[in-house]
Design goal:
The chain is of the alpha+beta class and about 850 residues long. Helices cover about 25% and strands about 20% of the residues. Belongs to the peptidase C19 family.
Amino acid sequence: MAEVSEVLMSVLSTIRVPRPGDRVHKDECALSFSSPESEGGLYVCMNSFLGFGSQYVDRHHTRSGQRAYLHIIRTRKAPEDDNNSGSGDPPKKKPTRLAIGIEGGFNVEQDQYEEEVKVVLFPDRQEVTADDLTAMPDVVRERVSLAMAGLMSADSVSHALQVQQWDGEVRAESRHAAELKQLDNGGSGISPGWRCEVCDLQENLWMNLTDGRVFCGRRYFDGSGGNNHALLHFQQTGHPLAVKLGTITPDGADVYSYDEDDMVLDPKLPQHLAHFGIDMMTMEKTERTMTELEIAVNQRVGEWEVIQESGATLQPLSGPGLTGMKNLGNSCYLNSVMQVIFTVPDFQSKYVSNIDKIFDDAPSDPTQDFKTQVAKLGYGLLSGEYSKPALDPGEGAEASTEPRGDQVGIAPRMFKALVGRGHPEFSTNRQQDAQEFLLHFINMVERNCRSGANPSEAFRFLVEERIVCQQSQKAKYTQRVDYILQLPVPMDQATNTEELHEAERRREEADSSGAPPPSPVRAKIPFTACMAALSEPETLTDFWSSAVQAKTTATKTTRFASFPDHLVIQVKKFTFGQDWVPKKLDVSIDVPDTLNLSTLRGAGQQPGEELLPELAPPPLMTPDVEVKGILGSHGNEEDDSLYSPLLSPVLDDSTVSQLCEMGFPLEACRKAVYYTGNTGIDAAMNWVMGHMDDPDFSAPLVLPGTSSAPGTTPTESVSEEHLATIVSMGFSRDQATRALRATSNVLERAVDWIFSHLDDLESMEVSEGGRSAAESEGAREPPPGPKVRDGPGKYELFAFISHMGTSTMCGHYVCHIKKDQQWVIFNDQKVCASEKPPKDLGYLYFYRRVTE
């Protein structure tokens, strides 16, 4: 022990006690998904607090020189009887709330582990336990003991990031509860024959806590529920609180506040019920709670069971490429997208095939390195190391080892934290749109692949837009980069129109008679109709024609200028109603297994076709400003090509205000009005909907001919720190300066701006003299546009992502992927052979090019 004591003394200066703010990774390896429960446990560096599995700890020791690691091994205890009969301990509480990690909810720490902790000294792997420290010098014992205790008591990063508290029933105390006035209605307590006083309905009944009268509840979006009589009673009397009969138990009940329009808590509920002769302590639950009903209503739509193939007994699968992913709390959108991403060979070769080099080149903190964490995730999904069937957690060692549908799988906590960092949506635990996350991830890949292979090129394609002025018949051609083809859904092309009309008629009859609603009918839309809607010309009513120097009508036709290796098609199921409220179209589309898009390839300028002159439309300005006034101090009367950045465009304030009231950012609203030439709310709204995915959607309006946002000047100084950050990403100083000036010196916005203006910036290539190539004598021709692959437009379907629920902000995502001619369903940790892949109900479809 003397030798170990001497070694500890020699490394004592490197052993740190965690302080507030330190990132402690004691639940997950930085380079793999090993944890303290894995074979070999987890080694936590006692200096950097990074965790490493047994296969990577030697690598970290060699690279960093650190020798002291805290070795944590957890083994699951034998399961105990839930009732703990004879143990003297109280029985475990069953969950009473749709919640995780809070009182009354599901206990995520329910699994009990035995923990073994010791210090291991490298390279000889000498072990030191807490008992061993008692025989060592005081300075060693105190420092190491403090470090061990500090590490074990510190909150791990993964613990802070994962969903520890999620509550589907978050309710605030009603402001009416404390002073609620109750009337005497002579109530005699429990009545087995409770009915709505208006329609005699015997379910979904609510008792008003002011006067004790009983009415039926609201009608749900699918037509089920009540007839709104409890709501009408509130509107007539103003009595705010009602309790749902049938949910009253000694633990509480569903209480709704019509005035606050939400489910609430009533701390005085026992007294309020006792006023009408109802003893909470003797009541039993006879009806589903509102949370249970919300889930049931979603399931009645039919999507949930069909998409998850719930009606069939599916065969669990495991092995390489068949690894499940744990749901971290509304992270199914991320799980589904990344499962598909790592089916694409470009991402496999970029991150998984080169994993050793990526790990060797990783910075000192690999948890913050994009390439490292993507490679770690890709290897975890493809290697098969974590694709192990999960045994029933309630089974003992001698019980059957029959696997369930789900796996141990991997929990992408580090990856989710990294890709979501700084993003207003993906950094939260709320449900998100899978399409938006796919674009966000591709954007991050673009940022991190400015040198070397860029796997996102597999999805990149060029779109050709041809606009023809109807007055002059002259045309204009533009090209833009895209990654996803958005497919419209023409509801008027449904093939079962009569069935839909009949279903609507039956629903209206049920509404008027108070009968149960009929089963919903899903619209059937031919895929050919969607493609026809995509390819048909669009009419532009307020197009400014440079040929006639006035606004006129034009037609716009969109075609492919190139076909990508992998084509992503988004079915535009999510739209806005006439009241601008988001809604989801419940449709079935006969999406084919093979596609031939050759007829949609753009042909460019036609023989004999004249092009529109390259003239910009007149700027929007104050009527009393003379034309030469736009020159400012940056132009002259002979050269009017520059506008003064100090001039603000005149915008229709009423249109801007209307857009802002819909919840869109102010700067986006200003740009919408500017770029549609003050032509009204409809045109501005169309611009907003077409540019919501732009990286600079919320960035300040930049006037043509300037690189400055309103309120800044071209000579405004920029942050040297921000400049250095952008230059370190591979951009020139001139490019970084332009980006910062265009975004008011905001680093995050500048980075987004620079990636959305790559075409412009590539012509600013810096020469050796420090000037841009455009300023240098003998400047080369500007480089071609973004690199795209091209080939035949023939494709085959290999994956699709489906969404269940009424909005992208709620519900659930699963994906189906074709593996060796067999469809496989990936539903978080469940990985099974698919029997009836619901290809007609998908949201995102992934096709790969078919080679002849």
